[in-house]
Amino acid sequence: MLNTAQPTLATMHSARSSSNSTATTTSRVLIGRRGMMTSGGDFSAINNSRRALLHNSTSQQHKRKTLTLRAASATAAGSKGEVSLLDYGAGNVRSVRNAMQKLGYTVKDIKSPEDILAAKKLVFPGVGAYGSAMDILRERKLIEPLREYVLDGTRPFMGVCLGLQLLFDGSEESGGVEGLGLIPGTVTKFTGEDLIVPHIGWNVNEVKRESYLLDLQKGDPSASVSERVYFVHSYRALPNDQNNDWVLSTCDYGSEPFISAVQKGNVMATQFHPEKSGFTGLKIFDQFLSGGKSEMETSSALPSSASSDAVRKGLAKRVIACLDVRSNDAGDLVVTKGDSYDVREKSEGESGDVRNLGKPVELAKKYFDMGADEVSFLNITGYRDTPLKDAPMIEVLKLSSETVFVPLTVGGGIRDFTDSNGKHYSSLEVASAYFASGADKVSIGSDAVEVAEKFYANNEQGDGTSSIETISNRYGSQAVVISIDPRRKYETDPKNTKNKCIETKRKLGPNGEKYCWFQCTIKGGREGRDIGAYELAIAMEKLGAGEILLNCIDEDGQGNGFDHELVKMVADAVKIPVIASSGAGHPRHFSEVFGAVPACSAALAAGIFHRDEVTVKECKEDMAKSGLPTRL
Ligand code: 1PR
Q1: DSSP assignments along 570-627, one per residue
Q2: 196 DSSP assignment
Q3: Structure confidence by residue, pLDDT tens digits, 136-189
Q4: Distance CA 600, CA 56 (A)
Q5: Is the shortest distance between the CB of 606 and ligand 1 below 6 Å?
Q6: What is the whole-number distance in angstroms between the Cα of residue 490 and the centre of ligand 1?
Q7: pLDDT exceeds cutoff 80 at 59
Q8: 71-87 tens-digit pLDDT
Q9: Is the CB of 449 under 6 A from ligand 1?
Q10: In angstroms, what is the span from residue 445 Cα to ligand 1's centroid?
Q11: Closest ligand 1 atom, CA of 609?
Q12: Lowest-pLDDT range, 113-122, 298-307, 434-443, 543-552?
């Protein structure tokens, strides 16, 4: 354990000492190489409706080979101890809570300033925008107790993401805001030519000194370099002479490396999200919680295709598994999959039942275990009613966040809505319910098209009330994904449309037309509008969206590969991440889209994964062979 007789942070901070006060790595007991995560006692209390969403067979256990986790030894015996969680209600903290419970700890919520001072171990997962986080802390009179706890330095503290940034003097986010003033430096926005911001995805920590926090493999902190962790942020703190003694690791993105983890004695914080960084992140959390005595074991055995720096370093291209979810005719929530958005089975030309490819919670866990970098749920009938009435979808998220420790996106029905009783639901309320249930991002489809039409009608201005603006202001742009559902619209002459047209090489029109634009649709492709995917993406970036999920109705379910012309058009138009979607039929299709469109950040597939035709691993191995940065 740490020597509590070492100088407190108060003295260290005031002296702005450059000496390292890194905790000593303690010895750990390593047990079992192929242990499996087991559910803690908190998982037994699921009620019947929740059980119905779970698969009752244990026959399909998908385990990630490169990393194993020995179940918390205390699970059977009860809690390993208490940890206090500062959740001020601004975003998805459920996953942090789930991660700690999964690791065998009991979570106690901070409800008052006194709770902070009484905490034995404190986790502070900051979420949302810097300014509003400080406002909430101030209103709840938590600033001084937090400072006192950290400056005292005798009890463990872990900040996550904004929870790291708030420790600094301030941030230029929200027009310039003062922080907790515990670490010298100001948090600033990423800079860099043509840089895609937010920095979303899996990147590498360059560990600067020894510390148990990032010691993932038996006393070899440098080994953590081979394990990527999940980042999602637009602002970052830079190392400098004044804060150098805090810097535990840096990460390369943008014009200069930024601080990805800090530690001074018992006080630690990460810019990345351990709770979203798969087994690697769980190990980091476990190291924090156990004071360096984690029993989780990692194996650094990466496939030989990962030997090149191009594959092992930098922000990885993401592979996303998508689950289109809807109720079937019997009323059960199922994962389905369409061909060009038609999800009904066909027999002799007649439309049959909704295609049923499995249960959402079970499949999400399967893809997490297979190494998917993210999982998306799209409630494909969400436009028909408000999802707040659709409790099963909320339940799917809650259950999935108990076992899936990579980012979860949810879409479908995110818009303002008035039900038949005259009750109004704002899109912000819908999104808030999703975040509180375990979603990290929400994806907005139909509503985005209508918002973009208003934006162009209003001289390219938002009015501040749209779903995109309100959710992004409250939760940050990284939490808002725009799901575009375009279809090719052919033209004999590009002048026939106001929307951006290309000369296509991929596929000519039915009458040999050479030109096409990509028409946005709403209501699951049922209604086309006079706005292109290009125009929509530009409007959404301006209104504060953080990512584009670019579907393609023509290619959906066809297995012919992504539409590179569409992906290139949109990825070149914006500086936010673009996810290519629709058409994956082979592992090489992932490498091909990243090769053809370097600005494309991620690629998503559904059918090939659901039908067990291709595994996530095969896609990633193909990417690694092509020299693409990949999380293996
Ligand atoms: O409009 O905000 O309520 O959101 C509804 C959401 O549901 C949108 O994101 C829309 O894309 C989606 N959606 C609506 N109807 C369908 C349908 O299939 N009938 N699914 C639908 C969209 C497209 C992808 C699919 C990829 C990959 N599905 O999500 O997973 O095309 O498939 P593939 O790899 O098998 O080719 P709102």
Answers
A1: HHTT-SS-EEEES---STHHHHHHHHH-TT--EEEESHHHHTTSS-HHHHHHHHHHTT
A2: -
A3: 999 999 999 999 999 999 999 999 999 999 999 999 997 899 999 999 999 999
A4: 38
A5: yes
A6: 22
A7: no
A8: 444 444 578 999 999 98
A9: no
A10: 9
A11: 34
A12: 298-307
The sheet that has 82-85: what strands, in order across it?
106-109, 82-85, 122-126, 157-161, 267-270, 258-264, 247-251, 206-207
**pLDDT for 185-230, tens place per residue?**
999 999 998 999 999 999 999 999 989 999 876 555 555 556 899 9
Lowest mean pLDDT among 108-117, 129-138, 368-377, 458-467: 129-138
Q: What is the mean pLDDT of the chain?
A: 85
Q: Identify the pLDDT of residue 201.
A: 98
Q: Is 156 in the pocket of ligand 1 (CB under 6 A)?
A: no
Catalytic residues: 161, 273, 275, 324, 485
For the CA of 382, the nearest atom of ligand 1? 3
**Gap between the Cα atoms of 560 and 543, Å rounded:** 33
Which residues make Cβ contacts (< 8 Å) with residue 443, sequence separation at least 6? 376, 378, 409, 410, 411, 412, 414, 481, 482, 483, 549
pLDDT tens, 249-281? 999 999 999 999 999 999 999 999 999 999 999
Q: How far apart are the first and last CA of the chain?
A: 33
DSSP secondary-structure letter at 168? E
Which structure tokens are listed for 631? 């999380």
Q: Cα(346)–Cα(367) distance, rounded to whole angstroms?
A: 27
Atom of ligand 1 nearest to the CA of 336: 18
What digits encode the pLDDT tens for the residues 530-540? 999 999 999 99
Mutate to test the pocket of ligand 1, among 339, 354, 357, 380 (most ligand atoms within 8 A of CB): 380
Question: How open is the CA angle 102-296-202, to the nearest 5 degrees?
Answer: 80
Q: Considering only CA atoms, which residue is closest to atom 2 of ligand 1?
A: 445
The Cβ-side half-sphere exposure at 438, using a 13 Å CA radius, reads 26
- Report CA(324)–ligand 1 centroid distance (Å): 6
- Closest residue to atom 31 of ligand 1, CA basis: 582
CA-to-CA dists, residue 339 to 215, 305, 485, 603, 630, angstroms: 46, 34, 13, 18, 29
Pocket probe for ligand 1: among 582, 608, 616, the residue whose CB has the most ligand atoms within 8 Å is 582
Q: Please give the distance, rounded to the nearest whole angstrom, from the Cα atom of residue 476 to the centre of ligand 1.
A: 24
- Listed residue (352, 360, 351, 362) closest to 332, CA to CA: 360
Q: Which CA distances in Å does 354 have to 325, 363, 433, 608?
A: 11, 17, 27, 18
In the reported structure, the alpha carbon of residue 611 is separated from the centroid of ligand 1 by a whole-number distance in angstroms of 17
- Bigger pLDDT: 49 or 176? 176
Of 26-40, 106-120, 538-552, which gets the smallest average pLDDT? 26-40
* 337 CA from centroid of ligand 1 (Å): 9
The Cα 401–Cα 365 span in angstroms is 9
